[in-house]
Design goal:
Elements lengths: L2 H10 L5 H9 L20 E6 L4 H11 L3 E7 L3 H15 L4 E3 L2 H7 L4 E4 L3 H13 L3 E4 L7 H13 L4 E3 L7 H11 L6 E9 L21 H5 L32 H12 L7 E7 L12 E6 L6 E6 L28 E7 L2 E6 L4 E5 L4 E2 L10 H11 L9 H19 L2 E3 L1 H8 L3 H16 L9 E3 L3 E4 L4 E2 L5 H7 L16
Parallel strand pairs: 1-2, 1-4, 2-3, 4-5, 5-6, 7-10
Antiparallel strand pairs: 7-11, 8-9, 8-16, 8-17, 9-10, 11-12, 12-13, 13-14, 15-16, 17-18
Helix pairs in contact: 3-4, 6-7, 7-12, 8-10, 10-12
Length: about 500
């Protein structure tokens, strides 16, 4: 009996069953085309959706499915019984019928009472939940980032093609009519050639502290084996807050670039028009300004060196100066220099003839080369991202999806490759970094802006404080590191992970 089986038996008091037998053939390593109870959707039937991960973003999923005509939130799955009970009770009350609750997504898939799966789990579960759903004959909506690493995201895409399933990513900015219009405006050459695109996640992130040698507390009733899934069952917990602060540990999350920033990374790539990962990527940054138990950067520049134009991504979790760490941190974050009155969670497209701004809410602003405001392009007609998924489920036309899984995969992979460079980097001083990047004026400009930001937060960068990663060459077609000599092995190890059985993403051929 596996560790997973022991945990399920002890915690749920469930005997061995045909579900266990099905798992041996499908979960994590098989490629069964459909589970026994998968249902063929009738053209006039309500689409029954099961939501997995109901504590944070999953609550928004539940609300969204409940509001759509011809759609039912039929099942909810969560490993925290307190969260599960609250969501199931409220959803049943809102919809007026019984909603099934599950601790284990595998049981939800096997019972066959859903047509589609909606995943809002922690990042390390995103791909595997989609894989298991499609193996069980379900279409799936998988939150951003669609993967925890580069390799597994590509397997999700390949499986959706192999099984002919609809798989939508949670990069919902693709459904914004104003951003879509802005992308067309730039790609039509209205402002001339793109010089570079800058994505920004200037979002307040305070220290998560350190629980000490005793570790953090596991919430009562949580099935920690299932929660850990592909990752090792870490003990003691390195975080005090169980349900959110996993974002800041590589085993489960991808930092803020892979949390909030994936949206802006995706929009930035959309503007450039690239449909593969960048051939060259590197990072400058670190976890700076305070000490805690987390491991991912809170301050970072990632430089994706596309041949068409650079895509630069900047993460800043500290406020604009040290004094605001004790006074209104959240209201004193940096703004984009080109649009100083606008949000720092946004994208700026720097063109020969002017600049375009768009933020996470879809607000768009355009200025000419002299900074004078111009008329923004007229908003295009679009539908809601969840409704778009349902439309594709009905028509079976994946090309009509706004955020088809391959689009979200590529943008998610850009977050992953940036973190790979960071994790393979070395601590350097300000002078050492400037010497390394002096041949690139755009990059030097962006680094100097980050350096000023750190100095204002009293971070001493004259010492070897900031991590500078290597410029890593990737093959955009294979999505593996190539041409980096001995560095290839280390980089490619971080392109995937070691999976804990039976929570294994299969290789799709």
């Amino acid at each position: 009996m596996s560790l997973s089986d022991k945990s399920l038996t002890n915690q749920q008091k469930q005997p061995a069953s045909t579900r266990r037998q099905a798992l041996k053939a499908t979960a994590g390593f098989g490629l069964a085309l459909a589970w026994p109870n998968s249902k063929v959707l009738g053209a006039n039937d309500d689409i029954r959706v099961g939501v997995i991960g109901a504590n944070g973003r999953g609550k928004s999923h539940i609300d969204a499915w409940q509001k759509l005509n011809g759609v039912r939130c039929a099942a909810i799955c969560d490993i925290d019984p307190k969260v599960l009970d609250a969501r199931v009770t409220k959803s049943a009350d809102v919809q007026g019928f019984a909603v099934q609750g599950y601790n284990d997504m595998r049981e939800m898939f096997e019972k066959g009472d859903i047509d589609a799966m909606s995943s809002a789990t922690p990042n390390h579960w995103h791909t595997l939940s989609g894989v298991w759903a499609m193996q069980a004959g379900k279409d799936c909506y998988v939150e951003k980032p669609i993967s925890h690493n580069v390799w597994e995201g590509r397997q999700l895409v390949k499986l959706s093609r192999k099984l002919d399933k609809i798989c939508q990513g949670g990069t919902q900015s693709r459904a914004s009519g104003s951003i879509k219009a802005a992308v067309k405006y730039v790609q039509d050459g209205k402002l001339g050639k793109i010089k570079y695109v800058k994505g920004m996640c200037y979002k307040p992130r305070q220290s998560i502290g350190d629980p000490g040698p005793q570790g953090g507390e596991l919430p009562a009733g949580v099935d920690y084996d299932i929660w850990s899934g592909p990752a090792d069952m870490e003990t003691p917990l390195r975080r005090k807050r169980f349900h959110y602060d996993w974002h800041w540990f590589y085993e489960y999350g991808n930092g803020d670039m892979g949390n909030q920033g994936i949206h802006q990374m995706d929009v930035g790539r959309w503007f450039i028009g690239e449909d593969k990962i960048a051939p060259r990527t590197f990072s400058i940054g670190g976890r700076l300004g305070y000490e805690d138990s987390a491991t991912t950067p809170n301050t970072q520049i990632v430089y994706h060196d596309y041949d068409s134009a650079p895509l630069i991504f900047e993460t800043r979790g500290l406020p604009k100066a040290k004094e605001f760490q004790e006074n209104n941190w959240g209201k004193n974050m940096n703004k984009p220099e080109e649009f100083p009155e606008m949000s720092g969670i946004s994208v700026v497209v720097v063109c020969e003839g002017g600049n375009v701004f768009c933020d996470a809410g879809g607000r768009v602003s355009v200025t000419d080369a002299d900074g004078k405001k111009m008329d923004s392009p007229e908003k295009m007609e679009t539908t809601d991202i969840f409704a778009n998924f349902i439309d594709a489920v009905r028509t079976r036309k994946r090309e009509e999806q706004y955020a088809e899984c391959e689009e979200t995969h590529i943008s998610s992979a850009l977050c992953h490759t940036g973190l790979i460079s960071h994790r393979l980097g070395k601590l350097m001083s300000n002078d050492q970094i400037l010497e390394q990047i002096k041949s690139d004026p755009t990059l030097t400009n962006r680094y100097l802006a980050m350096a000023d930001h750190l100095k204002l937060n009293k971070v001493d960068i004259s010492k070897e404080t900031v991590t500078m990663g290597p410029m890593i060459k990737f093959n955009p077609d294979t999505e593996w590191a190539e041409g980096n000599g001995e560095l290839d092995a280390a980089a490619n190890k971080l392109c995937t992970r070691e999976y804990r059985a039976p929570y294994t993403v299969p290789e799709v051929v």
